[in-house]
Amino acid sequence: MDEFKLDDNVFEQIKSFNHKNLTKEQKLRIDKLILNEELKKRYKNNGLCKECKQLKASPLCCQCKFQKNFKNWASGNHEIDEFIQSVQVNAKGDEILEWIEYDRFENVEYLSKGGFGTIYKAIWKDGYITEWDSENNQ
Question: Which conformational region is residue 117 in: left (phi greater than 0), alpha (psi within -120 to 50 degrees), or beta?
Answer without folding.
Answer: left
